[in-house]
């Protein structure tokens, strides 16, 4: 085996542009013909290595992977067809364009050659112009293959970088979820005969729902449920800001600021208008939210509520009847002069009030059927024997089952239960 040294790049005869010199392995047991073809290839600018048989050709491939292979079909020992099969079985970085030289190839031979992995065929004696034309065609294919491989490498690197970025985002969102869950500082509360229970379950890492409660005075408690439009970071940031305005600290809680000066707390409707002005004047965003805010007198059961586009609260009476509360009202942050629904009613011992986000009432089956208020009423009746978090967890499970786990929206709820005094127990002998 011998090889000729030459510059690594030569001008293309057709365009004058500089191209990378390709390496050619010429395999032919006929030395005069091998030398003639090798001379033509060198003059054309190729780097040429020669081998007299298949074994020598495979050994040459161990030293330097050729770009193109020209192999005689008929050789002593290993034939060109067998060499092609052996070459294709080897591990290599690129394709390697294989041309078989044959004296008289019929259709059956061509089929066998293609099956073995040959790319092209040349009939001997080889004409110089045809040889160079076939090699030029092979080079074009190799260039395409190399460009695709380079593009795949770049794509793979880009995907690796995206995966790393996504992993970092997922880590941040997991931490953000912990922080957002921390906005609901208490998941349950007891105020006289009133028991409050909260559910907050984002559809993704973070969400736009917020629920909570805070004491207003000795006999009154404020409770709220908010649902910010959209999902993800924007909605979560707004819920975080709103949570500050509704926190238990009186110096930050909008509803309690008036109480610092000895006045009464801000009424529910006034609070809704405050948030509406804040959204329109201070927030440079298209985001809005729906809201239920209520003041509950736990000594008398009197409820004063504002509904701003939020789903209807459900009041379940002691006898099992379910009553929808409110007419709807407009969402917060959309209209300059919104009309909110102001509601007053009284809860009696044994009643319970359920306030949910539309992630519950608008849950749909895979077929597109919505749960709706009727479905929520059915869940309340079915779970009438449960209370507190047991009821909320059972409701959440029912909703997930209804939509077969495909829940695109956050779920949140506030459950208000007016507990009845315990019935006296008669002891034996008394």
From TrEMBL:
The modification 4-aspartylphosphate is found at residue 72. Residues 23-139 form the Response regulatory domain. InterPro entries: Bact_Sigma-Reg, CheY-like_superfamily, PPM-type-like_dom_sf, PPM-type_phosphatase-like_dom, Sig_transdc_resp-reg_receiver. PROSITE patterns: RESPONSE_REGULATORY. It comes from the Bacteria. Keywords: Coiled coil, Hydrolase, Phosphoprotein. Residues 141-168 form a coiled coil. It comes from Paracoccus maritimus. It holds the Pfam family SpoIIE. The keyword Kinase does not apply. This is Fused response regulator/phosphatase. SMART domains: PP2C_SIG (SM00331), REC (SM00448).
